[in-house]
Each structure stands twice: as structure tokens, then as C-alpha cells.
Amino acid sequence: MKKVLIFYAAYGGGHLSAARSIKEYIENHYKDIEINLVDCVKYVNKALDKLTTTAYNEMAKKMPWAWGKIYSNSQKGVFAKVSNSSNRIMALKLNKLLQEYNPDFVISTHPFGSQMCTVLKQKGKIHAKIATVMTDYAPHDQWLVNADLIDYFFVAHDGMKQDLIDKGIDDNKIFATGIPLSNRFLKSYNKKEILNELGLVDNKRTVLFFAGGEFGLGKSKTYELLGTLAKDFDNIQVVAISGRNPKMKRSFEYLVEQEHKEDSIKVLDYTTKVPELMSVSDLVITKPGGLTTSESLASRITNYCD
């Protein structure tokens, strides 16, 4: 039996969602493959994982501009050197898992997983095939560290494939497959039934509004946007997702009460029914993540990213 190890890291929900979708597909189509899904950063160091994921979530909510600056600069200069050096150190701890599990194939939906595996491959510690699944719509150089040691790249579109070829990567290693999604986004749903469950109607445009938690647009921006939807539009209805953020949920509910919009704005916390909600929506307002954008496209709805 072949063994597949799928690595992700919990910086935002997209990397985990993509990893789960890959696992789901393999399990449904290949019965002779054993799969293990692992948060590579948490496995290496739980304290580091908690510190860095908390920092990411807080920046995404409160200082999105700061996270954007770090993300942009992490592919060059001191940021890149620190990242690459730390991954070489962490790779030694990840090696324990790789030796015990002994996978034939390693798939990573976050650049850290690929980087650590290529370090070990360079040292002759592992011999598994390595595949990088990019969960963005543009190639960030962190995905391409030690690219010569990565066997396969799966990218969102042909333009990204050309970008990688222009960077000197063999085109035979690159596949424009799109970003992995759960097949739940391809199913048909009963729109009237779902809207009825939410207490909404089927003769108004529906806006799906993501905010809070890992979908955060920033606290003040989030409240301002929802306030605009509540005050300036009478011909729409809104499903506002506050995520795992009770303060945001309470502020949403207060806004709805103040504007007397209980009939047209429904506030939900964390939900596993995003495919169903997208299926009844005409517009999605969200942070511009690769997964959410792909999910919106698969659901054939407009995606407004802020």
C-alpha cells in the first residue's frame, strides 16, 4: 500500500481546506492509499505554532496592512533569510515523523512543508516524491525555495504556470489544475429551502459577508462595511458570518438591532455550511484568499475582496 503525507499550516483557513479536499479526493478514488494529514508547524513546535498563528490572526483582524507588508517582504532580504534558516532547523524535527511514516509521496499546501522536506531530501534523509500545491493566484517566491528538489507544482491557472517557467522551473513539473476544493461546492442545493431556514426570502439579492476570525477584514473596516449594507441598501438581504469571534458577533447583532434589520440581516458564527450559503448568494464580501475566491467561482457568484 502506498503512503501519502499531506502537510499544511494553520495560517488562515485556506491551506487546511485545500489539504482536506485533496485527502477527501484521494480517499474517494484510491482505496489502496494510506493518507495522513499533518499541521507541519504544530508538529515541529506547538509553542511556535501557537505564537505565529495567533500573531497572524491578530494582524489579519487588526493590522491587515502590516501582514501585507510582511507577506510581500518575506520573499526577499532579511525576511527570506530568517524564514529559510528557521525551516532548515525545523526540518530536523519533522524528520522524525517522515522516518516513522516513510511516505511514498509528500503533498504540501503551505510553503513551509515543502521547504522543510526539500532540506531533508537534499541531505538524503528522505526519498519521497514532493508535490507543492499553491493556494494563491500569484506565485510568491517562498513557494519556490529549493524548487529543483520539488517534483511537482500544482498551480491555480496557466498564467501562474508561465510565471514559474519564466523563473526557470521545468514546465513538465508544473500542472495548472486550479486550487483544490471540496466537491460540496459543485453540488446543487435547494435555494428556497436554505433561505427559508435562514428566515430570508428568494426575491431579493443575497450577500454573503465574511468577517472575524481568519476571514477578518480588520475590526473597524468590517463593522463599517456591514453598516453600509444595513443603512444604504433596502433591496438586499445579508448573511453575516462573524466566525469564531464572539465580540464581532455581538457587534453585528447590535448593529442589526439599531438599524431594525432583523428581517434582512442574519448573523451567524462559525459555520460548516459555506457551500450551501454560497449556493444561495449573489455576492460574497471577504478577505481575498485563494480558497474563498475559488469557492466563489465554483459557486458561480461574484466575489468582492477588500
What does this entry look like structurally?
It is a single chain. By secondary structure, this protein is α/β, with parallel strands linked by helices. The protein folds into two domains: 179 residues, Rossmann fold (3-Layer(aba) Sandwich); 122 residues, Rossmann fold (3-Layer(aba) Sandwich), CATH 3.40.50.2000. The protein is 47% helix and 18% strand. It is built from twelve helices and eleven strands. It has a six-stranded parallel β-sheet with strand order 2-1-3-4-5-6, with helices on both faces. The longest helix has 25 residues. About 10% of the residues have low confidence.
CATH class categorisation of the largest domain: Alpha Beta
Q: What general outline do the C-alpha atoms trace?
A: elongated
Number of helices: 12
Kindly report the average pLDDT value.
84
Number of individual domains? 2
**According to CATH, what is the topology of the largest domain?**
Rossmann fold
Order of helices and strands: EHEHHHHEHEEHEHEHEHEHEHE
How would a crystallographer describe the biggest sheet?
A: 6 strands, parallel
Computed structural class:
alpha/beta
In short:
With 306 residues, this protein is of the alpha/beta class. It has helices at residues 14-29, 40-44, 46-62, 64-73, 77-101, 111-122, 158-166, 191-198, 219-232, 246-258, 274-279, 290-298, and strands at residues 2-8, 33-39, 105-108, 129-133, 152-155, 174-176, 205-210, 236-241, 265-268, 283-286, 302-305. Strand 8 (236-241), helix 10 and strand 9 (265-268) form a beta-alpha-beta unit.
